Amino acid sequence: MASCANGGNTKSKISGDKSDAAPEVADKEKRSSALSIWDYRIKENDGKSFPVVEADIWEYRFVFDGDEMSPPGSYDGQWIDYKPDFTYDYGKNTTVEGSGKYHYSLDDSLLLMIDDDASKNPVQYETKFAGDVMVLVGNTEYGSNPYQMKLERVPDATYKK
Hints:
The chain is α+β, with helices and mostly antiparallel strands. 17% of the residues lie in helices and 35% in strands.
């Protein structure tokens, strides 16, 4: 479920599932730029992470791809787990499907995500929190602007077995 807004259909943008998506080729310049920005931001905040993002696991509920909202239940079991070391895993049910690195900025509420799969472009989202709900709103930096997602916090034990 991680690095959304990579080319292909919405399901592939969220989960990395490329079964019905066209092959992707990441923009090397964007990826290089994102890695430099990630490195700078980690150093800038002395490697401090934020529990608001990393506590528990986030399960996807709804995704808006710029044209339509996903039907209820279409993302059941798909999750992303942000960790204190600025890495994340994502998957479906108990299967890890991918990983990457992220940086969350508390000052401007931006979440930068860089998938370990070099065929995926980086993404950046504005975040909004309300209790155990996180909404990700894409921005223009890496082309994720049409996307919005609603995620809900679930206990770590839900998918980590």
